[in-house]
Every structure is written in C-alpha cells, then in structure tokens.
Amino acid sequence: MQNDIKDVLYSEEQIIQKVKELGAQLSTDFEGRNPLVICVLKGAFIFMSDLVKNITVPLEIDFMAVSSYGASTKSSGVVKIIKDLDVPVEGREILIVEDIIDSGLTLSYLIDVLEHRGAKSVTVVALFDKPARRTVDLQPDYRGFTLPDEFVVGYGLDYAEQYRNLPYVGILKPHVYEK
Ligand code: XMP
Ligand code: MG
Question: Which residue range or ranges hold the Phosphoribosyltransferase domain (predicted)?
C-alpha cells in the first residue's frame, strides 16, 4: 500500500497537530452553543473522530452519507443522500465536518438542505481544501490545509475505496490509476 504513494503531503504528526488547533478554535467559538456535529461519510470519518476528541464543549454527533452521480473523481453537482441524519436540525447550530472540498458542489448542496430544514446556523470545517478546482463560490469557515490540484488518499480519503487507513495523506503514483 505504501509503495503506491508518490509523495507524502502531510504526515500523521502534522495532521494531528492541525486537528488539535482546529479543535481548540472550535471549542472557543462553540462555547454554549451545543452544536450538532455532522460527519460527512465516508471520507471524513477519521477526521471527525480525531476532531471531536479535541473539542471540549458539549456537542452531539450525527452522520450523513452522500454520493454524487456521474464521473468518479469529479463531483457532478447532483448529490444523493445515502444515509440521512437521525435527528431533526431545526433550530440547531450545525458544524459540518468534511474531509476535502473540491468543486464545492457537495457542500453547497448539503448547506442548502440543512438551511431548508431550518438549521439556526451552518458552519463548515474542512481538513483539506483544493481552491483551484472550485466551481461554486464557497469557502469553509475553518480549514486545515490547502492542497494543490492532485488526487490525494489517506486519513479517510480513498481511491476506489482503498487507502482510507493510511495515517498520513499522500499523492498516488500514476501506475495505480493506469492498472
Ligand atoms: P466536491 O467537488 O463536491 O467534492 O467539493 C468533494 C468530495 O469529492 C471527493 N474528493 C476526493 N476524494 N481524494 C479523495 O479521496 C481527493 O483528492 C478528492 N477530491 C475530492 C471527496 O469525497 C469529497 O467529499
Ligand atoms: Mg467524500
């Protein structure tokens, strides 16, 4: 598995350090707000797990799974909810936890859905951001790292459902795609 990685972009230590910083900032900003923290499956599952351990204020967690129709490594903008939330969001302060923002289409759809359902506020924390590929005007409120326009795997992120268990984030070697 490690042999398929061309470059490690961020090590496990660098990611954990960043997640701690994000957690500390969110702890301050969400004091007294009892947020509903929503993990966008599957990619954000490791980030979610590490992040909530570093948020010190009371919160609830829930999970959503979405998939976009169309091309495999690109978002089509048509998003399907595969697993919905268990709890109503009306009047709640929402923190969406995303692995990576690429075109921004998935997130903009999710924000629309939650606002439509009457969320009091919707805040986004994304561990990774690829601003070069954005097709909608959307920025995360909190961001871990800005990435170049490369497909990355690890720390929850996959290629064909593989590599999610790598503790770091890296760029795949081309031969993996060409198999
Ligand atoms: P959009 O384009 O809607 O897409 O912002 C966000 C989703 O696309 C996936 N994505 C990636 N997954 N490595 C991955 O493993 C990447 O480099 C990558 N870029 C985008 C991801 O599922 C994210 O939620
Ligand atoms: Mg994803």
Answer: 9-159
0.80 surpassed by pTM: yes
Helix (H) or strand (E) holding 24: helix 12-29
Q: CB-based contacts of 25: which residues, under 8 Å, 6+ apart?
A: 142
Please report, for the domain that includes residue 94, its CATH number: 3.40.50.2020
11-38: string of b/e by CB count within 10 Å (b at 16+)? Answer: eeeebeebbeebbeebeeebeebebbbb
* Parent domain of 142: 12-150
Helix/strand/coil for 43: coil
Mean residue pLDDT of the chain comes to 93
State whether the beta carbon of 96 lies less than 6 angstroms from ligand 1.
no
Q: Sorting pLDDT into bands at 50, 70 and 90, what band is 61?
A: very high
- Indicate whether this complex's ipTM tops 0.85: yes
Ligand closest to 79 (CA) is 1
